[in-house]
Amino acid sequence: MERTHKQRMLAGEPYSAEDPELQRELAANEAWLARYNASLALGRAQRWQMLSGHLGAVGAGTQVRPPFHCDYGFNIRLGANVFINFNCVILDVVEVSVGDGTQMGPGVQLLAADHPRDAATRRQGLEFGRPVRVGRDVWIGAGALVLPGVSIGDGALVAAGSIVTRDVPAGATVKGNPARPA
Fold it and tell me: Where in this chain does the record put each Maltose/galactoside acetyltransferase domain (predicted)?
């Protein structure tokens, strides 16, 4: 039996985001984002309830300050006491996980969505994902970008404005474009 585009997406295989099932998922997420991004005046507990009812997993004490943007939401797993500041973007076509106690400055982007390098394949409208994993007690500074397939180890620091193109070992500090040990 042939796999659906959603099944292919979740497996990190090429898929079409124009698939009707995925378009319905995107539309439902956009409606949720509109509600969540209008919730800044609500208390933390109410926003946490909204997050935990929509994202794949949300640990106790986690805060995501609106506005927030993601593709689907169900592939995002946030540990306990995670803090994500304003204007975070998580492209979650596959799993994006963030460990307990991790903090992110404003404008951080975790990008699991990727595209074929071959132009002919891109013209077919195919894309794929590579999981992003952020460990426990990580600090990611404002405006940093974490690219598809990258893992950041526990206790690491990513300087503001960095573009993380490869894995970061536990306890390391990286900065720059591309991010390198500081």
Answer: 6-60
Instruction: Look up the pTM and report it.
Output: 0.96
Number of domains into which the chain is organized: 1
- Quote the mean pLDDT of the chain: 97
Q: Does some domain include residue 164? A: no
24 in a structural domain: yes
Count H helices, E strands: the chain? 4, 20
Note the pLDDT of residue 20: 96
Token pair belonging to 100: 């307990």
- Which residues are the active-site residues? 115
What single string gives the DSSP state of each residue in 4-68?
A: PHHHHHHTT--EETTSHHHHHHHHHHHHHHHHHHT-TTS-HHHHHHHHHHHSSEE-TT-EEPSSE
